[in-house]
Amino acid sequence: MAEDRDVGLTAALAALSAALAVAAGAFGAHAAASPKAAQWLETGGHYQLVHAVAALVLLRWPGLLRPAWCLIAGSLIFAATLYAMALGAPLWLGAITPVGGLLMIGGWLWAAWRLLKAS
Hints:
By secondary structure, the chain is an all-alpha fold. It is 82% helix and 0% strand. The chain is built from four helices and no strands.
């Protein structure tokens, strides 16, 4: 039961993450303050959307809940720092962006390891 609830919560967070990605991309395309801001919004939105969908796919396999969480958390950290800089936050936030990238890479490697182990 708890596993089902966790999967449902993760799926809902992935769906919300995808919605945020689309909103960021639309904002970047229509209202960004500069070409650099638009690029950050586009990049963040792209990674966030891809990884939200990937997390939903991973949830279809047993034992891949935690790797899915890594994808969601990583993409949120990655995208949020880019979104913040696009909206005028200090550029030092760019130093945090790779933490999100490492979480995404880790999530993919973890998923691959679990899938290989199961086969």
